[in-house]
Design goal:
Elements: E1 5-7, H1 15-19, E2 22-25, E3 32-33, H2 35-49, H3 56-62, H4 67-82, H5 89-103, E4 109-110, H6 114-123, E5 128-131, H7 136-145, E6 154-156, H8 169-178, E7 185-189, H9 192-201, E8 205-208, E9 225-227
Helix pairs in contact: 2-5, 4-5
Length: 233
């Protein structure tokens, strides 16, 4: 079956879902559009540190690899823009966490088709796992706000795993937890890091076209399929 085959939202369930015995979902950029919440937290962080605020578009390009990476990218870019040394990371992380705690869920929404995709997997009786680099506190909060927290058999977050994506460890751990061969599972993500983790683990992977992939075309990174909507699962 050829790689990178676009699948329109109104087509029947993909063979990837039909063949999978469990489905692993990334969170930010795949299920949830959280960029405005994260941008609001970055604004508050920069205000507290006396740095110029980034644009929301910049923040969208910085999302990926977890909160620490987002903070590092924000500090590096904004300090350079201001012509000042980068602030202390630990202080910045405490400020960001406090700001994001206030902002999480304020502007976030499920992407169009995300709930339909989740409902389709749930109706098929296939266990679902959320695998994200986001901290567990914020992951659980978002899933709870959207009423899907209990749909997941397991949540693997950035601060609860031994190694984060793009390392394959979370995917292999999820398969072991479910007692399934990794090649019988399906990873659904939005970035090259999801693809890298899945391919290293030996897990089929499909990606959505609308997520946070640092401005790069996800079709260039070798997913087994590329979807415009999770309703196409």
């Amino acid at each position: 079956m050829p790689n990178n085959t676009p699948v329109a939202p109104d087509r029947p369930a993909t063979p990837w879902l039909q063949q999978a015995e469990a489905v692993f979902f990334d969170l930010d950029g795949t299920l949830v559009d959280s960029a405005r919440d994260l941008a609001a937290a970055c604004d508050r962080l920069c205000d507290a540190l006396g740095l110029p605020r980034p644009s929301e578009e910049q923040v969208r390009h910085w999302i990926g690899n977890g909160v620490p990476k987002l903070i590092q990218r924000t500090l590096a870019d904004r300090a350079q823009a201001a012509g000042v040394p980068e602030p202390d990371f630990d202080q910045a992380k405490n400020l960001f966490d406090a700001a994001y705690r206030q902002a999480v869920g304020q502007y976030s929404r499920l992407f169009d088709g995300a709930r339909e995709g989740l409902e389709k997997v749930r109706a098929a009786g296939k266990p679902m796992v959320c695998i994200t680099n986001k901290p567990l506190e914020f992951t659980k909060s978002l899933l709870q706000q959207f009423g899907v927290r209990e749909w997941f058999s397991l949540i693997l977050a950035g601060d609860t795993v031994e190694r984060k994506k793009p390392d394959p460890w979370p995917l292999r751990h999820a398969a072991d937890f479910l007692g399934l061969p990794i090649n019988k599972c399906l990873m659904v993500g939005d970035s090259r890091h999801d693809i890298q983790a899945a391919k290293s683990a030996g897990c089929p992977v499909v990606c959505v076209t609308y997520g946070y992939n640092h401005g790069e075309d996800i079709a260039d990174f070798g997913a087994d399929a590329v979807l415009d909507s999770l309703a196409a699962l």
